[in-house]
Known about the structure:
Helix content: over 70%
Amino acid sequence: MWKKxxxxxxxxxxKIAAKVEKSFKDAMGNAKGAFEGLEKAGKIxxxxxxxxxxxxxxxxxxxVAASTAIGSAFESQMSTVQAISGATxxxxxxxxxxxxxxxxxxxxxxxEAGKAMEYMGMAGWKAQDMINGIDGIMDLAAASGEELxxxxxxxxxxxxxxxxxxxxxAEFADILAAASSNANTNVS
Length: 188
């Protein structure tokens, strides 16, 4: 075919062929660049996913470790409550349930509720007294902004000093809260 072309036609055909070849090379270069770009994007996406998965796994591991530590601290605290109070297996189960309930429904943790129960046990309160009396003590601790265990210790000591019983704890906590707020002092 090229042999039949002569002069200007041949030169024009060569120019056209050169432009087609250049366009083809440009297209191939662009395609190669596009594929390289896709490859880089794929590597970045893979590394991002890998990094995200690593972060997620690390975070999950940290959460599990923290949850285990919190659960272990609670179990340890409640074992102390059982030892001090002499609660039976059934009573101990009820105390744990009450502490967990308080941890879920108040601003205090279940371990803090267990600490309050520890002071109640040291004051000679029985399991049912603790279950019935912890609400008032928690309300006083929340209102005063003081540590729950300390407030429990104060209330149980004061009830004993006044010859009152555990069943009087809610009323006593209300009186103590009113007295501390009206006397420009704190519960402790």
